[in-house]
């Protein structure tokens, strides 16, 4: 019985999520009413207030779901591949997630519906990738943080443009394109910092 109730709750929440994303493509969040959400979702006000205090709480749940889903993708992805010759497995998983959640991601990333989410996505990328790099190569040089800020902003920029153009390339093609840019630029940046650190360390011992 509990499992049936859980499934029913998830189904209701999913309907409210989809209704909110749909309405936010038409108007600003502060202009969306509970009545409109109920009409769009096919559910009643009682069901809405059973789960949420107001529209803003629903929006926060949608944001949190996107962030947690994205974090889960990065947790599953073999991050060490980012620093080897094959970045595509990581990038493909990321692109697939954005493709599968295109409507919500387009809304939050491209239209700036809530820029805090964009900042958190960048933070997740930097934290996950940077910690992996340090685990592999050691060191806490602050220049790595600048490099990852540059890299994550570039990746988010490419994904944003992809969504704005209604995903003209498949997730596989997008991952391949991103891999090409990363292998030509980002990897060299990281290696340059590592080389500079070694040279500085050598100078300090002389």
Count of helix runs = 9
**Strand-residue fraction?**
under 5%
Number of strands: 0
Topology pattern, helix = H, strand = E: HHHHHHHHH
Distance between the termini: 73 Å
Report the mean per-residue pLDDT as an integer.
Answer: 80
Q: Could you characterize what this model shows?
A:
This protein is mostly helical and 206 residues long. It has helices at residues 2-24, 34-41, 45-51, 55-76, 88-100, 102-110, 115-137, 142-164, 171-205. Helix 7 crosses helix 8. The chain is elongated, with a radius of gyration of 21 Å. The model has no long low-confidence stretch (mean pLDDT 80).
Which key phrases capture this entry?
206 residues; mainly alpha; elongated; 0% strand
Helix and strand arrangement:
Elements: H1 2-24, H2 34-41, H3 45-51, H4 55-76, H5 88-100, H6 102-110, H7 115-137, H8 142-164, H9 171-205
A few lines on this structure:
With 206 residues, the protein is mainly alpha-helical. It contains nine helices and no strands. α4 (55-76) runs antiparallel to α5 (88-100), α6 crosses α8 and α8 (142-164) runs antiparallel to α9.
